[in-house]
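Appendix B, example 12.
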Amino acid sequence: MLPLPSTVPGELPTPLDLLIERMQRRGEFPALSAAVAGIQNATNSERQSVSELTHEVLKDVALTQKLLRLVNSVHYAHAGRGTVSTVSRAVALVGFDAVRNLALSLVLLEHMRDVKHAERMREEFLRALMAGSVASALCALSSESEEAFIGAMFQNLGRMLTAFYFPLEAAEIRELVHTGKYQTGEEGAAMKVLGLGYEAFGTGVARLWGLPESLQRCMRKPIGQPPVRPPELPAERQRWVAQAGNAVVDALLQGGGGPLRQVADRYARCLALAPQEILEATARAREKLAVLVEVLNLQPAAGSAVSQLLLCAPAEAPPPPVPQEDVLAPHALKASPPAQSGFAPLARRNSPQVADLLAAGVHDIATAMSEPFQVNDVVRMVIETMFRALSFQRIVFCLRDAKTDTLVGRLGLGEGWLATAHAMKVPLKTPGDLFAAVCLKGADTLIADTTEPRIAQRLPAWYRQHVQAQAFLLLPLTSRQMPFALIYADHAAPGGIVLDEKELALLRTLRNQAVTAFRQHG
């Protein structure tokens, strides 16, 4: 158990000590503290180590997936959407501090969940995320935008901790605020109920976790009116930008319009921005929040106060129509619980074990790729992880032959893989079979039953003569929208390949690790 922050023998515990002691009685707080401390310790090492940070993040599969989806989807589109497939790659593309800050944010989301008041926690996280997004958009210097994001988010730490660990007290504080009796608003109400304000609570826990001094300073809101010109010291600028981000969110929760314009006018000179630029930055942040909501599955209840933060979110573009003549469209790879696969259940490892084996492989490969590596070594690790976790009959890695523009078998594992590899020749210039069509589309595809007439007639002759598996999986590897490799894996029984959502995500992460290995080596 973590020590209390300020107790001294013979002295009475402070209100902060008492709150932390209550939190430590719940299993979530020690786990959350360990996760935050692990990420922070990796950052505080004398030599910032990508592998150390990667190791800490990959301890939590859900955190890893959300981090990679977040990096690919919203804050770092310049890094190349869909190309960031490992934590170590994310660090290389968007920076060590950026990944650390996102990991610290997401670890709160992953650990601070409770079905009893899940909606309230969802609202608190959305509020904090929006404040961070606005602060990042308001930052004049791109080099400071990441610190502004995490600073504005963590200014809400005290409120989030109270909502999660002390929901009754949080409700009492909200009621007191609504009475209007406290000129200092939430801080005064929290002082009466908790014995200390939200800010002191949040910074006290941040100190316990060993978060950077710069972040702890940014969490302390500046006092008084915004200065008439931007502060010269970067740390002071960060505090005012974070404060402005939270002020914008408060205005939006009041209904936007007039309150938002007042905030823009109030902070314009301090941020060296025109009021209209602040309004435009807010609109961009609201659009980004819509993406964050989808990535993190944080959709608020319809009609809730926090749903107003999403009013300017653009409508999601409809998916492109699927041609009716596309025979392969129904076989696009997607999660399929065994009970809904259409086939009799088959003996296989249980899902948690499959996911653990796949995640362990992702971890090992990410660690290997954070240091000098050979592409063949990464490919072998990828196919071995898939083979062991999903109990395939065989797995073969195919690579494009530049002279013939054909994918040919190179590496593999399992029963008769070498004969299959020798037989595999997928022409890309003159496509006519199922394998070539899948590769040129770049579509992950699962054929659950190769005897289905519409599938059987599209299987190439080499497959019918030398392989004849009853089910197979195809994972194309593409670069610049062109296939350069293919992972083929099969099973002896129809319906023998079944994947749930987590397994599917990890399988694709492994494939993308192979793609990244080739890209990094040119």
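The two ends are 48 Å apart (CA to CA). The beta strands are 394-401, 406-414, 425-427, 445-447, 471-479, 482-491.
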